[in-house]
Structures are given as structure tokens and as C-alpha cells.
Write a structure and sequence with these properties.
The chain is an alpha/beta fold and 562 residues long. 28% of the residues lie in helices and 22% in strands. It has a 9-stranded mixed beta sheet with strand order 2-1-11-10-12-13-14-15-16, with helices on both faces. A 7-stranded mixed beta sheet has the order 7-6-5-3-4-8-9.
């Protein structure tokens, strides 16, 4: 039996107070022009064939050339038995081959599988077992170090077609900051991608057609709460959000987009990959994130739009070559994927002259769902110190619910729920998990937050990250936001530590800015003077660098004390 619609006139969310915060002229809902990713790309090729589609160091790949390259790979795939509904794994960094592979999958009637390039044998075994890809494209080093090992164990079904490639292809600069040790590796049991592209040039498979409900990408969640799950991102999900995001932040036609977020991650897929097609824009790629290289790429290619994890902005801001001129071309700067300390936003604006605005979303909602309007700055809640994640944008409903799924009054804390055309239909091969997380098209995010009276939404933390110290609830973000106001702190993460008296106590792990010094005791005293007695960290550990995912999100789970 379907649940009752929670959006009733008695609810504070029914009136959608956030609509008053939209930029002038922005409607509550939009109708996308295209409802599948391939049509979006083909439209970009038709109107701007000679415009750069990919800028990769000194390489320029135009939209017409990208069309030819993806045709060539699609034809090779089909010739080798790849067909409708088959999956091709993209086990790649931010290289042109990722984009070529995804388009080729669609042109061959198949599904792209985004794979974190940091995954090792255990994770690859899980993905191959669950998604059973027919084909795979990977760096030669990844094949040698990981895929060949998985093949030798026999613990997972292997892709029938394995293409190997190198990050050095297409460009000739070979920046030593990134390419030291990168070399071409060829294996008799794999297909060399460059050779396949050359052989297939001028060929194309029969034109494929995709409907909005067809799966475009399988994007696996991080698996922090168990075995990773493959979100089934449909063509309708992805094409809607790419077009919506482009309109919301006013990415002008042809505006260069900075590929700062990894393409395997939902932020990179929607806000870079699909958004570039929506505006026929060049996508600037730089293999993998290195702050000095990224600063040079912004300046060289005149990036106009950027969205990435706040840790990436911290790293660039603190790089020795950072200066306002490096960021001068940027017109829209956004961050998402991890909590954003207000103090970092203020420092970036003061030192580099740009406002970082917030965005929010999950893999399962083809992020974003909430985002700060271009004409406003993300406010900070006075009581909690949290920076707003934005407001629900086009065609999106969102509310805060209690443990029974009922809306709570404005200002009260609960779980954030989202509904809209960006919500995936479920997880690959996991009906039970799908039914639990996505109910009647509503995504129960697992994020704890609240909505203020104006319609701004805030995230307090993840349900699973809450610390209970002597019966008091402590949200790590509250403590981290204070830590980031210390002049010496570069990055911070707060985790629980076992305490014989309090049950759990608060532990902070921090890294320091270059040239700065601080002791653990100094940090503890700093926090003690600025927050309630039950919240301040009793343990502070100072390390060189905090562990992060490839997207830049700090890995709290790796810092948890026993």
C-alpha cells in the first residue's frame, strides 16, 4: 500500500518557501530539451562540431573528433559481441578515454559502469561479481596490479573484452608532476585501446536509441555502510540534472568547465561530463588531482565553472603558486560532496576573491538536488554554525522527516528526504535495499539536517557518524567547523574514541597549514573555549595528511580509534 503524500498544507514544506530564494526569472520547474545522454551529446556535435570538447594538457579534442573516436570504439565493441544492455567498466582516471568509453557504450546500446580508480582487488572482485561487465577499459598499470590478480584468483567473472590504455595518450606534455613513471604497457591477453581506435576509425554501429528509463550508468556507492551498491542512473535522471544544473548556475554556451571532480563520481558525471554536453562546452581534464597542475589548468584553459570537494579548494589555496590571478577566469565556483567549513569559504573569498557556493546530493539522486542560487551566498546558521547546502532546485521536493518518515516542523532536525526526476529507480540486483532507501520515488538520504524559515537546508551530519559521549549527542561537523577556525589548521576530522567512563569521547585528527605550528594541548584549549563542555575534543592527533577518497572526501572511518 502506498504511503500517504507527506506534502500536505499542514506541512512547512508544502508552500515551498525556498522558491522565494530562486534567482530572478528562474521557474519552479523546467522541461528538459533532451531526455537521454546520447541525444544531448549529438546536439552538441551538431551545433559546435569544431569546438573543443576535451582539453587535456596540450591536447584538443573537438566535438566532431570525439564523435568519431566514440564511433570507432562502439564499432569495435559491437564487432566483438558487445550488445544492448551489456556493461562496460571504466576503470580510469580523468582522461579522455573515460568520455570516449562512456559514449561508445551508449552508441553500442549498452551501459557504462563507473569504477573508482583507487579500487583494489577486493573492490574489483565485488564489482565484477555484481555488475558482470562484458567489457572493461583500464590503465595498463591497473590491469597489471589489480585486474590480472583478480583474474588469477578466479573469484569473479571476468569481462570478455579488456582494453588497456595509458594516461599519456592524446597529450605530449608529460608533466613530470603527474606523468613520472607513466608508460605504455601492452599485454597479449588484452586489447590495446589506441590500436582499436585506429582500426575502427571511420566505422560506426547502427544508431542506438535510448529512452529516459534506460540505464545510462551504474555508479557504485562508497560502501561505507556495507557492500557497495550500484545506483542505476538512467538517461532521464542524468540528462535532466545536467541540463538543470547548467541552467541554474548559468553555464554559458561554450564556457570551459574544470574537471576537478573525478569522472567516476556522480559530481564529475553530472556537473562536468553531462553539463559539458548540455552547453557544448570544453571539459578540462588533468589526469588526476594535483593542486599545482590544477591551478595551471585553470589559467591555461580559462576555466569558467568549477565544482569540487572543499578539500580540493583548500589544497589549491594553500599551494605555493596560488594567487588571485590563477583563479581570475572562474565565474561560478561551487563545492559539494563533503561538509564545507564556513571559515574556509571566508578565507577563500578573502585571499582568492571568489565566493564558494554550496551544492548537495548523493549518487542515488544524480547530484545535485539542493544548490545555492548563483545570485546569493550560502548562509551560515547562527545556532549550529553549519553552512547551508542550498535550496531544492528545479522540479525538486525536499523535506525533513522523523524516524517514521513523517515531516517535522521547520527548524527541527531529522533525515533529509528528496523527490524529483533525478532520483534513481533503485540499485542493481538489490530489490530489498532499493525498497528501503527509495520509497515511492522518495530518496531517504541518511543525512541529518533541518530547514530554516526561509527555505535554506542544512546538513548536520550522517546518521552513522554521531558520537554519544556520556549520553550527549555530538555531531562531528559541529566540532570540525570550530577546528577550521584555528589559524594553523588545514584539514580536520572528528571521530569517536572508546572511553571507559564516557562510553565514547571526541577525538580530532588534524593536519596543519604549511609553516604553521600547534600542539595537541593548544588545539584542545582552543576548542574548549568555544564550545559546550561535552563537545570539545579530549584527544587531538596531528598528522601530515588526512586520508581521503579520490573525490577529496575525508575518510573518517580510517581514523576511528579502537
Amino acid at each position: 500500500m502506498a504511503e500517504a503524500n507527506p506534502m500536505t498544507e499542514a506541512d512547512p514544506y508544502a508552500a515551498k518557501p525556498w522558491l522565494a530564494l530562486f534567482d530572478a526569472g528562474m521557474p519552479a520547474e523546467i522541461t528538459p530539451v533532451y531526455d537521454d545522454g546520447l541525444s544531448l551529446f549529438r546536439a552538441a556535435v551538431a551545433r559546435a562540431p569544431e569546438r573543443p570538447a576535451v582539453l587535456y594538457f596540450d591536447a584538443v579534442i573537438t566535438y566532431s573528433e570525439l564523435d568519431l573516436l566514440s564511433d570507432a570504439l562502439a564499432a569495435d565493441l559491437v564487432m566483438r559481441g558487445f550488445g544492448a544492455g551489456d556493461r562496460i567498466g571504466l576503470y580510469l582516471q580523468n582522461v579522455p578515454q573515460f568520455i570516449i568509453g562512456a559514449l561508445a557504450a551508449w552508441k553500442a546500446g549498452g551501459i557504462a559502469l563507473a569504477i573508482n580508480p583507487m579500487n583494489r582487488s577486493r573492490e574489483i572482485t565485488q564489482l565484477f561479481t555484481d555488475a558482470t561487465p562484458k567489457a572493461l577499459i583500464c590503465h595498463g598499470s591497473a590491469y597489471e596490479d589489480v585486474v590480472a590478480t583478480v583474474r588469477a584468483t578466479g573469484e569473479a567473472p571476468m569481462p570478455a573484452l579488456i582494453y588497456t590504455t595509458t594516461a599519456a595518450d592524446f597529450q605530449t606534455r608529460n608533466d613530470p608532476r603527474l606523468f613520472h613513471g607513466v608508460r605504455t604497457r601492452r599485454f597479449p591477453e588484452t586489447i590495446d585501446l589506441a590500436t582499436a581506435l585506429a582500426a575502427g576509425r571511420g566505422h560506426a554501429p547502427a544508431p542506438a536509441r535510448h529512452g529516459p528509463r534506460d540505464i545510462a550508468f551504474l555508479v557504485y556507492t562508497s560502501g561505507t555502510t556495507g557492500v557497495p551498491k550500484g545506483a542505476m542512473c538512467t538517461h532521464g535522471n542524468m540528462s535532466f540534472n545536467g541540463q538543470a544544473l547548467s541552467r541554474w548556475v548559468d553555464i554559458e554556451d561554450g564556457m570551459p568547465i574544470l574537471g576537478i571532480a573525478p569522472l567516476f563520481h556522480i559530481t564529475g558525471l553530472i556537473c562536468q561530463f553531462v553539463a559539458a554536453f548540455a552547453t557544448a562546452s570544453p571539459l578540462i581534464l588533468a589526469y588526476r588531482f594535483e593542486p599545482g597542475v590544477m591551478l595551471d589548468a585553470i589559467e591555461e584553459h580559462q576555466a569558467g565553472f568549477a565544482i569540487g570537494a572543499i578539500t580540493a579548494y583548500i589544497a589549491m589555496m594553500n599551494h605555493p603558486s596560488a594567487r588571485p590571478e590563477k583563479f581570475a577566469s572562474l565565474k561560478r565556483v561551487y563545492s559539494g560532496g563533503a561538509p564545507i567549513p564556513p571559515s574556509v569559504v571566508a578565507e577563500f573569498k578573502r585571499r582568492m576573491g571568489h565566493v564558494i557556493r554550496s551544492g548537495y546530493g548523493l549518487t542515488e539522486v544524480n547530484a545535485p538536488t539542493h544548490i545555492t542560487p548563483l545570485g546569493r551566498e550560502s548562509p551560515t546558521d547562527a545556532a549550529s554554525g553549519a553552512l547551508a547546502i542550498g535550496v531544492p532546485y528545479f522540479n525538486t521536493l525536499s523535506w525533513i522527516c522523523d524516524d517514521e518518515g513523517r515531516p517535522v516542523p521547520q527548524g527541527e532536525v531529522g533525515e533529509i528526504v528528496v523527490a524529483g526526476p533525478m532520483v534513481v529507480p533503485g540499485y542493481w540486483n538489490k530489490p530489498a535495499e532499493s525498497a528501503e532507501a527509495i520509497r515511492d520515488g522518495r530518496m531517504f538520504t541518511g543525512d541529518i539536517g533541518f530547514m530554516d524559515k526561509e527555505g535554506w537546508f542544512y546538513v548536520v551530519d550522517r546518521k552513522k557518524d554521531m558520537i554519544v559521549a556520556s549520553g550527549y549527542k555530538v555531531w562531528p561537523r559541529d566540532v570540525e567547523d570550530v577546528l577550521y577556525t584555528h589559524p594553523a589548521v588545514r584539514e580536520a576530522a572528528v571521530v569517536p574514541a572508546i572511553d571507559p567512563y564516557r562510553g565514547e569521547t571526541v577525538k580530532a585528527v588534524i593536519s596543519l597549514k604549511p609553516g604553521q605550528r600547534a600542539t595537541a594541548d593548544e588545539i584542545i584549549e582552543f576548542c574548549k573555549a568555544r564550545m559546550a563542555a561535552y563537545k570539545y575534543p579530549r584527544i587531538v592527533e596531528i598528522i601530515d595528511d588526512l586520508p581521503k577518497t579520490v573525490t577529496g572526501k575525508i575518510l573518517r572511518r580510517e581514523l576511528r580509534a579502537g
